[in-house]
From TrEMBL, chain A:
Transmembrane segments: none annotated. PANTHER family: SPX DOMAIN-CONTAINING PROTEIN 3. This is SPX domain-containing protein. The lineage of its organism: Eukaryota, Viridiplantae, Streptophyta, Embryophyta, Tracheophyta. Pfam families: SPX (PF03105). Residues 1-160 form the SPX domain. GO terms for biological process: cellular response to phosphate starvation.
Automatic annotation (TrEMBL), chain B:
PROSITE patterns: HTH_MYB. It is found in: Nucleus. Belongs to the MYB-CC family. Residues 202-262 form the HTH myb-type domain. Residues 194-204, 405-422 have a biased composition (Polar residues). GO terms for molecular function: DNA binding; DNA-binding transcription factor activity. This is HTH myb-type domain-containing protein. Keywords: Coiled coil, Nucleus, Transcription, Transcription regulation. InterPro entries: Homeodomain-like_sf, Myb_CC_LHEQLE, Myb_dom, Myb_dom_plants, PHR1-like, SANT/Myb. Residues 172-206, 378-431 are annotated as: Disordered.
């Protein structure tokens, strides 16, 4: 029950285009209930069988949905990443100090924009990773429920299949994320003290959007991994976030307009 | 040629390898062995090793299937340590992809190695460039194909009616500068068929997974055709010469490309508009400018954190399932031998005088079955046990004897696996 709520929260907070791309956890739970209520070896076995097949069918179509969406986004990210690199190069080549039309003001302005773009791009990719993970978690949970309620052996083989799905293999996105981090660190080197000093003040500047979603995702992750009644060897350990208070204080419930 | 920067961007500075501290986390899931390919693809035949070594020499002209080996990356790292750097900004675009790739390759459990061909393609580029610069002779043509097809499919049973069909990939065919032809990249093409479609479904249904290499080749082709506006899908497809790539793939990709290209700020901006983390503020206001910077830094920090945690979580999940699968295998093995033990035990237990000694004897056998059961998250409703009452009765005994049974010197076979179960169980409990 808790996961369902958490998932719903995540979906609400997520980027608008993504809302219908998440796992239909509730649907699947309904099916599981249906299956377990119709006893397997009685006259209700037909329903039982049908609900079971429906369950698997829905699972497969959900996985399809994830794969399609994920790969679509991934393709976009590849393109955007390359374009970003080109753009940076161009700015350096034209407006930079050794460029064809050096102009410090314009250069700085462009770089400012680029920086924002990189950060948001980075954020979006991380959110896609989060998307992948939360859907995986949901699948794992619902399969566990299924096995528990119906005494079936669906979980293990099915989850093995899921592990090989494109949406779960996030290596490329992860790499792009790291490249962004590298890009930012190189193009915009930052003093350590600066970060520490101004951190708290800058919290109020953050508003909706990617940043907010990221915070939400972190919080959700922590919540989900808190010890539950069904904690087993298959469960993940609780999430310990350093700077937890900082992150928590960054969680804003309403957008703060910047005056 | 515009293509050049695209290639140069991909070069890596070996010095920067050490900067990726995070990557250390990633490789914890699988042990770093000299032959990581074996680790990730246990079902592969042994012939790959030799062919991979051949590939690592790089000079092979044969087009026989050679399998990808991430160990080859080590060669390239050394060779590319003296990287050239014509860009004004000292190699900021040179990303140390080596380490990440290597770790990713190792970390990934998927045999298909989505990253694999891409890495190989990258390394191939560098080697190619190095040679061209150094010798300036005819570029050593590296021309081999690789087949990852069978490996990934072997794992997948059609049980769940969901198939990811064979990915096929080609190593890039690099030609020298003299050569007029375009290089065709390595392509990890994974047309993913939906479960609803039949095996002979139309190409439109297949989904392709793009990689940076593929995209690069795409860009090259587009540029050679006069830019994104003038290039046609058909022309691009022809020029790219990538196996498995259909015109539909190219078409949709071209569309995306055009959008991204001609509205670089708005494409970033459009997604940002709905999701702005910071509104545009006049740059004349310096103080606010600083605030924005700080806010961006904070945002970046948080994002990095989330990314980190997600990676860790993912690795844990992989590991958990791996262990579960391992236990399941052992459990199944045990069932076969355990049935006889149980049957013998059940008849013995009905005799109350021998209850205690027999209980101890059969407890371990049942314990490992039960342990495996519990660990696999299954309820003990298997029909394997002929007498459910017996099982329930001895469950308590089992639990008490769980700890002690490693000490009991019993028949070798059932308990060997059990002792390995125990440590496995404990290690996970500790984790």
């Amino acid at each position: 029950m808790k996961f369902g709520k958490r998932l719903k929260q995540q979906v609400q907070e997520t980027l608008p285009d993504w809302r219908d791309k998440y796992l239909s956890y509730k649907e699947l739970k309904k099916l599981v209930r249906l299956i377990s209520s119709a006893p397997p070896f009685s006259y209700g076995s037909v329903e039982h069988g049908m609900a079971g097949a429906e369950f698997v069918r829905l699972l497969n179509s959900e996985i399809d949905k994830f794969n399609t969406f994920f790969m679509e986004q991934e393709e976009d990210y590849i393109i955007r990443h390359e374009e970003l690199k080109q753009r940076i190069q161009k700015v350096i080549d034209t407006l930079g100090p050794s460029g064809s039309q050096p102009s410090e003001a314009a250069y700085k302005e462009e770089m400012r924009k680029i920086r924002k773009n990189i950060v948001n791009f980075h954020g979006e990719m991380v959110l896609l990773e989060n998307y992948s993970n939360i859907n995986y978690t949901g699948l794992a949970k619902i399969l566990k429920k299924y096995d528990k309620r119906t005494g079936g052996l669906l979980r293990l083989p099915f989850i093995q299949k899921v592990l090989e799905q494109p949406f779960f293999i996030t290596d490329l996105v992860s790499k792009l994320v790291k490249q962004c981090e590298y890009m930012i660190d190189t193009v915009f080197p930052v003093e350590e003290e600066e970060i520490m000093k101004e951190r708290r003040e800058s919290i109020r500047v953050a508003g909706e959007g990617i940043f907010r979603n990221t915070i939400a995702a972190l919080m959700t992750m922590q919540e989900i991994r808190r010890g539950s009644s069904t904690h087993s060897h298959f469960s993940l350990p609780p999430l310990i976030l350093p700077d937890f208070d900082l992150i928590q204080s960054s969680q804003l419930n309403s957008p703060i307009p910047i005056v | 040629m515009e293509a050049r920067p695209a290639f140069s961007i991909q070069r890596s500075g070996a010095k920067q390898l050490g900067n990726l501290g995070v990557s250390g986390v990633l490789s914890s899931s699988l042990p770093l062995v000299p032959t990581p390919l074996e680790e990730t693809c246990p079902k592969l035949p042994g012939s790959q090793q030799s062919s991979a070594n051949t590939a690592s020499l790089l000079m092979s002209q044969s087009s026989s299937p050679a399998l990808l080996q991430s160990t080859t990356s080590s060669h390239y790292i050394n060779e590319n340590s003296a990287s050239w750097c014509p860009e004004p900004l000292p190699g900021f675009l040179d990303f140390p992809t080596n380490t990440t790739i290597q770790n990713n390759q190792i970390e990934s459990n998927s045999c298909a190695g989505v990253m694999a061909s891409e890495e190989f393609g990258k390394r191939n580029d560098w080697q190619e460039w190095a040679d061209q610069l150094i010798t300036d002779d005819d570029a050593l043509t590296t021309n081999w194909n690789e087949l990852l097809a069978d490996t990934s499919v072997a794992d997948m049973e059609p049980k769940m009616a969901y198939q990811v069909p064979k990915p096929s990939s080609n190593i890039p065919v690099q030609h020298s500068q003299v050569h007029p032809q375009l290089p065709s990249p390595s392509a990890e093409i994974r047309p993913v068929l939906t479960p609803t479609s039949s095996a002979n479904s139309a190409p439109t249904k297949s989904r392709m997974r793009w990689t940076p290499e593929l995209h690069e080749a795409f860009v090259e082709a587009v540029n050679n055709l006069g830019g994104s506006e003038r290039a046609t899908p058909k022309g691009v497809l022809k020029l790219m010469k990538v196996e498995g790539l259909t015109i539909y793939h190219v078409k949709s990709h071209l569309q995306k490309y055009r959008t991204a290209r001609y509205r670089p700020e708005s494409s970033e901006g459009s997604s940002e508009k709905r999701l702005t983390s910071i509104d545009e503020i006049s740059s004349l206001d310096l103080k606010t400018g600083i605030e924005i910077t700080e806010a961006l830094q904070l945002q970046m920090e948080v994002q990095k954190r989330l990314h980190e945690q997600l990676e860790i979580q993912r690795n844990l999940q992989l590991r958990i399932e791996e262990q579960g699968r391992h236990l399941q295998m052992m459990f199944e093995k045990q069932c076969k031998s355990g049935i006889d033990v149980v049957k013998a035990a059940s008849s013995a237990l009905e005799n109350p005088s021998t209850l205690s000694s027999d209980a101890i004897q059969d407890a371990p056998a049942k314990t490992e079955l039960e342990t495996a059961q519990v660990d696999c998250g299954k309820t003990p409703t298997d029909t394997i046990f002929a007498s459910p009452a017996l099982e329930e009765g001895s469950q308590d005994l089992n639990r008490k004897h769980k700890v002690s049974q490693t000490e009991t010197p019993e028949n070798s076979e059932p308990y060997n696996t059990d002792s390995s179960l125990q440590p496995a169980k404990r290690s996970r409990a500790d984790a």
